[in-house]
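User: My collaborator sent over this chain with a note saying "see what the structure looks like." That's all I know about it. Can you take a look?
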Amino acid sequence: MTQPTPRTRVARIPDRGHYDAATIYAILDAAHLCHVGFALPQEDGAPPPPPQPFVTPTLFGRDGDQVYFHGSAASRMLRHAAGGFPVCLEVTIEDAIVLARSAFHHSMNYRSVVVLGTAELVTETAQKLRALEIIAENVVPGRWADVRAPYEQELKATSVLRLPLNEASAKIRTGPPKDEEEDYSLPIWAGILPLRQTAGELQPDPRLTPGIEIPEYLRKLSIG
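Assistant: Without extra context I'll predict from the sequence alone. Here is the result:
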């Protein structure tokens, strides 16, 4: 993990910025879904306007100082990222709605990470399988050992990219609303509404073979 760069240093409310590996890793490890932003370059000879930006959601997983994300080999986002073009990977975890006395000061408590860089296509079969395992285990720990491994054709149809965490930053907001001093006496309820994502009751596939028990790792997730 490097020091903050001009691109990753938090400019808006800078005291919410965090650049240490432990904070960034913890936020990434608590999330399942990331959004990858990219801008398609203009075709040769194309006139303005400038490149069109896109943002695509995808599952991901962290391994040390790098993250893996994947999708269809036909994906425009993955083909673009694998071509050496820069990408921006972002995750946000919502922790609470912040209810202020004024409309202007309503906010959210959140934890977020932004990663900038150039992703590398993972091509070696063993590394690709390992990356897919990391992604799967980030979503449901214990699942990879319980399912059928990908067929060769399925691996060919899947692209996996590796993005180093060399240029990354976190931004975190916590605490109550911050109203104007004169507004604290207004007869308006203010505070926070905590948000929590929880697993619901497991719903078996209608075509599930009778007699198959729920794995313990899933039972624990559902109970938790």
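A starting point for your reply to your collaborator: Strands lie at 17-18, 33-40, 52-63, 66-72, 86-99, 107-118, 120-121, 158-164, 167-173, 191-194.
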